[in-house]
Write a structure and sequence with these properties.
Blueprint lengths: L2 E7 L6 H15 L3 E7 L6 H11 L3 E5 L6 H11 L4 E4 L11 H8 L5 E5 L7 H19 L11 E4 H4 L12 H7 L4 E5 L17 H17 L3 H29 L9 H33 L26
Parallel strand pairs: 1-2, 1-4, 2-3, 5-7
Antiparallel strand pairs: 4-6, 5-6
Protein backbone atom coordinates (compact mmCIF):
# COMPACT_ATOMS: atom_id res chain seq x y z
CA UNK A 1 0.00 0.00 0.00
CA UNK A 2 1.46 3.35 -1.05
CA UNK A 3 -0.72 5.77 0.90
CA UNK A 4 -3.04 5.62 3.90
CA UNK A 5 -5.32 8.48 4.89
CA UNK A 6 -6.31 8.15 8.55
CA UNK A 7 -9.24 10.12 9.94
CA UNK A 8 -10.59 10.09 13.52
CA UNK A 9 -14.34 10.76 13.56
CA UNK A 10 -16.60 11.96 16.35
CA UNK A 11 -20.13 13.20 15.59
CA UNK A 12 -19.45 14.50 12.07
CA UNK A 13 -22.25 12.77 10.12
CA UNK A 14 -23.18 15.89 8.13
CA UNK A 15 -19.61 16.67 7.09
CA UNK A 16 -18.58 13.14 6.08
CA UNK A 17 -20.23 12.83 2.61
CA UNK A 18 -18.54 15.98 1.28
CA UNK A 19 -15.21 14.96 2.81
CA UNK A 20 -15.42 11.47 1.32
CA UNK A 21 -16.23 12.88 -2.13
CA UNK A 22 -13.35 15.36 -2.27
CA UNK A 23 -10.95 12.88 -0.70
CA UNK A 24 -11.85 10.22 -3.27
CA UNK A 25 -11.20 12.67 -6.09
CA UNK A 26 -7.81 13.60 -4.65
CA UNK A 27 -6.76 9.94 -4.30
CA UNK A 28 -7.99 9.09 -7.80
CA UNK A 29 -5.84 11.88 -9.22
CA UNK A 30 -2.76 10.61 -7.38
CA UNK A 31 -2.85 7.10 -8.76
CA UNK A 32 -1.06 4.25 -7.02
CA UNK A 33 -2.57 2.22 -4.22
CA UNK A 34 -4.30 3.99 -1.37
CA UNK A 35 -6.72 3.43 1.48
CA UNK A 36 -8.89 5.50 3.80
CA UNK A 37 -9.06 4.41 7.42
CA UNK A 38 -11.81 5.99 9.52
CA UNK A 39 -11.84 5.53 13.29
CA UNK A 40 -15.33 6.17 14.66
CA UNK A 41 -14.65 7.38 18.18
CA UNK A 42 -17.98 6.46 19.76
CA UNK A 43 -20.09 8.83 17.64
CA UNK A 44 -23.76 9.20 18.59
CA UNK A 45 -25.11 11.11 15.62
CA UNK A 46 -25.13 8.35 13.03
CA UNK A 47 -21.58 8.88 11.79
CA UNK A 48 -20.93 5.14 12.10
CA UNK A 49 -23.71 4.27 9.67
CA UNK A 50 -22.48 6.85 7.17
CA UNK A 51 -18.96 5.41 7.35
CA UNK A 52 -20.25 1.84 6.95
CA UNK A 53 -22.03 2.91 3.76
CA UNK A 54 -18.73 4.20 2.40
CA UNK A 55 -17.01 0.90 3.19
CA UNK A 56 -19.74 -1.14 1.51
CA UNK A 57 -19.27 0.58 -1.84
CA UNK A 58 -15.56 1.46 -1.76
CA UNK A 59 -12.88 -1.22 -1.17
CA UNK A 60 -10.41 1.48 -0.22
CA UNK A 61 -12.38 2.35 2.91
CA UNK A 62 -11.87 0.65 6.28
CA UNK A 63 -13.90 1.68 9.32
CA UNK A 64 -12.91 1.05 12.93
CA UNK A 65 -15.71 1.40 15.47
CA UNK A 66 -14.26 2.11 18.91
CA UNK A 67 -16.31 0.83 21.83
CA UNK A 68 -16.68 4.32 23.34
CA UNK A 69 -15.37 7.86 23.00
CA UNK A 70 -11.66 7.63 23.83
CA UNK A 71 -10.59 10.98 22.41
CA UNK A 72 -8.88 12.14 19.24
CA UNK A 73 -5.43 10.85 20.18
CA UNK A 74 -6.61 7.28 20.80
CA UNK A 75 -8.76 7.28 17.66
CA UNK A 76 -5.86 8.55 15.56
CA UNK A 77 -3.55 5.89 16.97
CA UNK A 78 -6.12 3.18 16.23
CA UNK A 79 -6.41 4.34 12.62
CA UNK A 80 -2.62 4.50 12.19
CA UNK A 81 -2.13 1.00 13.62
CA UNK A 82 -4.85 -0.37 11.31
CA UNK A 83 -3.34 1.28 8.22
CA UNK A 84 -0.90 -0.34 5.79
CA UNK A 85 0.48 2.51 3.69
CA UNK A 86 4.15 3.44 3.48
CA UNK A 87 3.05 7.06 3.82
CA UNK A 88 0.36 8.12 6.27
CA UNK A 89 -1.75 11.26 5.90
CA UNK A 90 -3.74 12.30 8.97
CA UNK A 91 -6.63 14.74 8.69
CA UNK A 92 -9.78 15.88 10.49
CA UNK A 93 -13.29 14.71 9.64
CA UNK A 94 -14.98 18.10 9.96
CA UNK A 95 -14.23 19.20 6.40
CA UNK A 96 -11.95 22.08 7.37
CA UNK A 97 -8.84 20.32 6.01
CA UNK A 98 -8.65 20.21 2.22
CA UNK A 99 -7.79 16.85 0.56
CA UNK A 100 -6.45 18.87 -2.39
CA UNK A 101 -3.40 19.64 -0.21
CA UNK A 102 -2.40 15.95 -0.06
CA UNK A 103 -0.34 16.04 -3.30
CA UNK A 104 1.58 19.07 -1.99
CA UNK A 105 2.33 17.27 1.29
CA UNK A 106 3.61 14.26 -0.66
CA UNK A 107 5.79 16.47 -2.86
CA UNK A 108 7.35 18.02 0.24
CA UNK A 109 7.85 14.58 1.75
CA UNK A 110 9.64 13.49 -1.44
CA UNK A 111 12.22 16.24 -0.88
CA UNK A 112 13.73 14.09 1.85
CA UNK A 113 11.61 14.90 4.87
CA UNK A 114 10.08 12.33 7.20
CA UNK A 115 7.24 14.49 8.55
CA UNK A 116 5.43 17.35 6.83
CA UNK A 117 3.18 19.33 9.16
CA UNK A 118 0.32 21.43 7.86
CA UNK A 119 0.15 25.12 8.80
CA UNK A 120 -3.31 26.71 8.74
CA UNK A 121 -1.88 30.09 7.80
CA UNK A 122 -5.31 31.55 7.02
CA UNK A 123 -7.21 29.79 9.77
CA UNK A 124 -11.00 30.02 9.56
CA UNK A 125 -11.90 29.79 13.25
CA UNK A 126 -13.02 32.16 15.98
CA UNK A 127 -10.21 34.51 16.99
CA UNK A 128 -10.78 34.72 20.73
CA UNK A 129 -11.46 31.07 21.53
CA UNK A 130 -9.37 29.34 18.87
CA UNK A 131 -6.77 31.38 16.98
CA UNK A 132 -5.31 33.52 19.77
CA UNK A 133 -4.89 30.68 22.33
CA UNK A 134 -3.48 28.47 19.58
CA UNK A 135 -0.92 31.08 18.52
CA UNK A 136 0.26 31.55 22.10
CA UNK A 137 0.44 27.80 22.66
CA UNK A 138 2.42 27.25 19.46
CA UNK A 139 4.98 29.87 20.47
CA UNK A 140 5.33 28.32 23.91
CA UNK A 141 5.68 24.78 22.56
CA UNK A 142 8.22 25.81 19.93
CA UNK A 143 10.28 27.65 22.52
CA UNK A 144 10.31 24.87 25.09
CA UNK A 145 10.70 21.88 22.77
CA UNK A 146 12.98 23.52 20.18
CA UNK A 147 10.94 22.48 17.15
CA UNK A 148 9.76 25.72 15.49
CA UNK A 149 6.32 25.00 14.02
CA UNK A 150 3.59 27.58 13.53
CA UNK A 151 0.68 25.17 13.98
CA UNK A 152 1.01 22.10 16.17
CA UNK A 153 -2.76 21.71 16.33
CA UNK A 154 -3.27 21.13 12.60
CA UNK A 155 -4.18 17.46 12.15
CA UNK A 156 -3.31 17.51 8.43
CA UNK A 157 0.17 16.00 8.40
CA UNK A 158 2.15 13.52 6.33
CA UNK A 159 4.35 10.87 7.92
CA UNK A 160 6.58 8.11 6.71
CA UNK A 161 5.43 4.91 8.36
CA UNK A 162 8.76 4.04 9.98
CA UNK A 163 8.64 7.38 11.81
CA UNK A 164 5.30 6.88 13.55
CA UNK A 165 4.91 3.11 13.85
CA UNK A 166 6.74 3.01 17.20
CA UNK A 167 5.20 6.19 18.62
CA UNK A 168 2.82 5.58 21.52
CA UNK A 169 0.60 8.47 22.48
CA UNK A 170 -1.64 9.02 25.48
CA UNK A 171 -3.99 11.72 26.67
CA UNK A 172 -4.16 14.41 24.00
CA UNK A 173 -0.62 14.25 22.63
CA UNK A 174 -1.49 13.68 18.97
CA UNK A 175 -0.47 17.27 18.20
CA UNK A 176 3.05 16.46 19.41
CA UNK A 177 3.78 13.62 16.96
CA UNK A 178 6.31 15.81 15.06
CA UNK A 179 8.14 16.35 18.36
CA UNK A 180 8.38 12.61 19.07
CA UNK A 181 9.52 12.04 15.48
CA UNK A 182 12.16 14.77 15.73
CA UNK A 183 13.50 13.16 18.92
CA UNK A 184 14.10 10.01 16.86
CA UNK A 185 16.06 12.00 14.28
CA UNK A 186 13.24 12.57 11.78
CA UNK A 187 13.47 15.55 9.44
CA UNK A 188 10.42 17.74 9.94
CA UNK A 189 9.09 20.37 7.55
CA UNK A 190 6.07 22.68 7.61
CA UNK A 191 3.80 23.58 4.71
CA UNK A 192 0.96 26.14 4.54
CA UNK A 193 -2.34 24.40 3.83
CA UNK A 194 -5.89 25.53 3.13
CA UNK A 195 -8.38 25.77 5.96
CA UNK A 196 -12.12 26.05 5.35
CA UNK A 197 -14.83 27.35 7.67
CA UNK A 198 -16.82 24.66 9.43
CA UNK A 199 -20.04 24.06 7.52
CA UNK A 200 -21.79 21.70 9.92
CA UNK A 201 -21.57 20.29 13.41
CA UNK A 202 -19.80 21.86 16.35
CA UNK A 203 -16.17 22.15 17.31
CA UNK A 204 -15.02 19.69 19.97
CA UNK A 205 -12.41 22.10 21.32
CA UNK A 206 -12.54 25.35 23.23
CA UNK A 207 -10.78 27.26 25.98
CA UNK A 208 -11.19 24.26 28.30
CA UNK A 209 -8.39 22.41 26.53
CA UNK A 210 -5.74 24.99 27.48
CA UNK A 211 -5.03 23.37 30.84
CA UNK A 212 -4.73 19.92 29.23
CA UNK A 213 -2.31 21.19 26.60
CA UNK A 214 -0.16 22.86 29.27
CA UNK A 215 -0.02 19.67 31.34
CA UNK A 216 0.92 17.62 28.28
CA UNK A 217 3.58 20.20 27.46
CA UNK A 218 5.04 19.87 30.96
CA UNK A 219 5.29 16.09 30.48
CA UNK A 220 7.04 16.53 27.13
CA UNK A 221 9.39 19.13 28.58
CA UNK A 222 10.40 16.63 31.25
CA UNK A 223 10.82 13.83 28.69
CA UNK A 224 12.90 16.11 26.47
CA UNK A 225 15.14 17.37 29.26
CA UNK A 226 15.49 14.48 31.68
CA UNK A 227 13.65 11.29 30.73
CA UNK A 228 16.91 9.34 30.66
CA UNK A 229 18.46 11.28 33.57
CA UNK A 230 15.62 12.27 35.94
CA UNK A 231 17.96 12.85 38.89
CA UNK A 232 19.50 15.76 36.97
CA UNK A 233 16.02 17.28 36.64
CA UNK A 234 14.65 16.73 40.15
CA UNK A 235 18.07 16.99 41.78
CA UNK A 236 18.42 20.61 40.69
CA UNK A 237 15.17 21.45 42.45
CA UNK A 238 16.24 19.47 45.50
CA UNK A 239 19.62 21.19 45.80
CA UNK A 240 18.00 24.55 45.16
CA UNK A 241 15.48 24.05 47.96
CA UNK A 242 18.19 22.85 50.32
CA UNK A 243 20.26 25.92 49.48
CA UNK A 244 17.31 28.20 50.18
CA UNK A 245 16.62 26.38 53.45
CA UNK A 246 20.24 26.85 54.52
CA UNK A 247 20.09 30.56 53.71
CA UNK A 248 16.87 30.97 55.70
CA UNK A 249 18.34 29.17 58.72
CA UNK A 250 21.51 31.28 58.47
CA UNK A 251 19.30 34.35 58.53
CA UNK A 252 17.60 33.07 61.67
CA UNK A 253 20.97 32.49 63.35
CA UNK A 254 22.12 35.96 62.35
CA UNK A 255 19.02 37.46 63.98
CA UNK A 256 19.69 35.43 67.13
CA UNK A 257 23.34 36.40 67.59
CA UNK A 258 23.28 39.89 66.07
CA UNK A 259 19.87 41.22 67.04
CA UNK A 260 19.14 38.94 70.01
CA UNK A 261 15.99 37.58 68.39
CA UNK A 262 15.24 34.14 69.77
CA UNK A 263 14.62 31.31 67.32
CA UNK A 264 11.17 30.81 68.81
CA UNK A 265 10.29 34.44 68.09
CA UNK A 266 10.60 34.13 64.33
CA UNK A 267 9.02 31.72 61.83
CA UNK A 268 12.30 31.40 59.95
CA UNK A 269 13.38 28.07 61.53
CA UNK A 270 10.04 26.49 60.67
CA UNK A 271 10.19 27.89 57.15
CA UNK A 272 13.73 26.55 56.79
CA UNK A 273 12.59 23.08 57.89
CA UNK A 274 9.67 23.02 55.45
CA UNK A 275 11.79 24.20 52.51
CA UNK A 276 14.58 21.78 53.44
CA UNK A 277 12.13 18.90 53.63
CA UNK A 278 10.85 19.84 50.17
CA UNK A 279 14.43 19.65 48.92
CA UNK A 280 14.88 16.18 50.41
CA UNK A 281 11.61 15.04 48.81
CA UNK A 282 12.76 16.27 45.40
CA UNK A 283 16.01 14.32 45.78
CA UNK A 284 14.12 11.18 46.75
CA UNK A 285 11.72 11.68 43.85
CA UNK A 286 14.69 11.98 41.51
CA UNK A 287 16.17 8.78 42.93
CA UNK A 288 12.93 6.85 42.42
CA UNK A 289 12.54 8.23 38.90
CA UNK A 290 16.16 7.30 38.13
CA UNK A 291 15.54 3.69 39.14
CA UNK A 292 12.33 3.55 37.08
CA UNK A 293 14.06 5.04 34.04
CA UNK A 294 16.77 2.38 34.19
CA UNK A 295 14.14 -0.36 34.52
CA UNK A 296 12.28 1.11 31.53
CA UNK A 297 15.32 1.14 29.23
CA UNK A 298 16.37 -2.35 30.31
CA UNK A 299 12.86 -3.72 29.75
CA UNK A 300 12.72 -2.27 26.24
CA UNK A 301 15.79 -4.23 25.24
CA UNK A 302 16.80 -1.37 22.96
CA UNK A 303 19.70 1.07 23.20
CA UNK A 304 19.01 4.74 23.90
CA UNK A 305 20.05 5.72 20.37
CA UNK A 306 19.11 5.08 16.75
CA UNK A 307 21.57 4.78 13.87
CA UNK A 308 20.19 6.07 10.57
CA UNK A 309 22.75 4.34 8.29
CA UNK A 310 26.27 2.92 8.23
CA UNK A 311 28.84 3.52 5.48
CA UNK A 312 31.77 1.13 5.10
CA UNK A 313 33.84 -0.65 2.48
CA UNK A 314 32.00 -3.39 0.58
CA UNK A 315 34.65 -5.97 1.50
CA UNK A 316 34.07 -5.50 5.23
CA UNK A 317 31.41 -7.78 6.79
CA UNK A 318 28.26 -5.87 7.59
CA UNK A 319 28.15 -4.67 11.16
CA UNK A 320 25.27 -5.90 13.31
CA UNK A 321 23.99 -3.14 15.52
CA UNK A 322 21.72 -3.34 18.52
CA UNK A 323 19.48 -0.61 17.10
CA UNK A 324 16.61 -2.08 15.09
CA UNK A 325 16.79 0.35 12.16
CA UNK A 326 20.01 1.56 10.49
Amino acid sequence: MDLSVVIPVYNEAEALPALYGTLGQALDALGGTSEIVFADDGSRDGSGAVLDAFAEKDPRVRVLHLSRNYGQTAALMAAIEASEGEVIIAMDADGQNDPADIPRLLEKLAEGYDVVSGWRKERQDAALTRRVPSALANRLISGLLHLPLHDYGCTLKAYRRDVVEDVRLYGEMHRFIPVFAAWEGARVAELPVAHHPRQSGQSKYGLGRIARVLLDLFILYFIDRAFDRPMQFFGKFGLGFLGIASAIFAWALALKYVSAVSLIQTPLPLLSAVVGLSGVLFLLLGLIAEVQARIYFEARGRPPYKVRRVVQHAAVPRLKLASRRW
